[in-house]
Amino acid sequence: MPFSDLEIFAAILAAAAHDLGHDGKSSRYHTTTESPLALLYNDSSVLEMMHCSIFFAVLRSQGSNILNDLEHADRQAFRQQAIRMILDTDLAKHFDQVKKFRESHVDVEVYSPEERTVEQRTDVLSFMLKLSDIGGSAKPFALHAQWATRINAELLGLNGTTVDKAIIQAGS
């Protein structure tokens, strides 16, 4: 089956929420410094876990609960898909995810959209979000250079501590 309205809705909101509350530091920074976030999320996809947590806290708050009228099963499906899509933006897992996607969707016999499982459809939507998240390098060079400069300035804008310098040298 092609993407359902709920799957598309989950993808759109996951895209909007995938960097909620971002503090300008990397997950690696948080785990290296043993920040409260790293401790809270057990060093696992620290920022992405935080983005999900904030996202669903907002969705549950009074006046913002746009999922309230959905059936329980649909809310659960939405939640699973949105969490998966947001967690898949963790660049630490990028190459494994690309390999898995290639094996599952590229290097296989072509199947029609009607034959896709929920998992396969979520894979595709998740990968689309990932590509959007990291797609800045596909922009015209002048625009890409502008954004790369901003990101580097953000990274180098850390406190200048020994830990910060070690993270920068390690390629955060």
From TrEMBL:
Zn(2+) 1 binds at H18, D19, D133. Pfam families: PDEase_I. Keywords: Hydrolase, Metal-binding. InterPro entries: PDEase, PDEase_catalytic_dom, PDEase_catalytic_dom_sf. Residues 1-172 form the PDEase domain. Zn(2+) 2 binds at D19. GO terms for molecular function: 3',5'-cyclic-nucleotide phosphodiesterase activity; metal ion binding. This is PDEase domain-containing protein.
